[in-house]
Amino acid sequence: xxxxxxxxxxxxxxxxxxxxxxxxxxxxxxxxxxxxxxxxxxxxxxxxxxxxxxxxxxxxxxxxxxxxxxxxxxxxxxxxxxxxxxxxxxxxxxxxxxxxxxxxxxxxxxxxxxxxxxxxxxxxxxxxxxxxxxxxxxxxxxxxxxxxxxxxxxxxxxxxx
Length: 161
Hints:
By secondary structure, the protein is α+β, with helices and mostly antiparallel strands. It is 29% helix and 27% strand. The strands form two sheets. Strands 1, 2, 3, 4, 5 and 8 form a six-stranded antiparallel beta sheet that branches. Strands 6-7 form a two-stranded antiparallel sheet.
């Protein structure tokens, strides 16, 4: 069994509903969710939007390799209304990012693991710290908890209620 950490997020439509539906579809087609963080709300990161994001991290146990999982996650995003409108950050119904695949390091055009911007995003680190605070980032060789402590992202992030 392979272990993945995935970040779910979105800022359009029924945000909480999309997260719940994505988790259900991930369970149906990809494997079992071993852990899930609380849901966090945050301002848009990297672009301006009037709609806040909801984010949640999950630990997934799967028979898939990273590339198989990526294909399934992209299909789930598309089935739940994700539309790609070119480069850059933008509002979306759903975003499913593979953050970690155990201690594996993958650097391919279509997939980079660990996620290359995890250390700069407070909203991601808060979710992941809740699940695996002592996990050592395989590239940076720093724990998730320390990365969160060192993160200088000024974005506001709070627990969604």
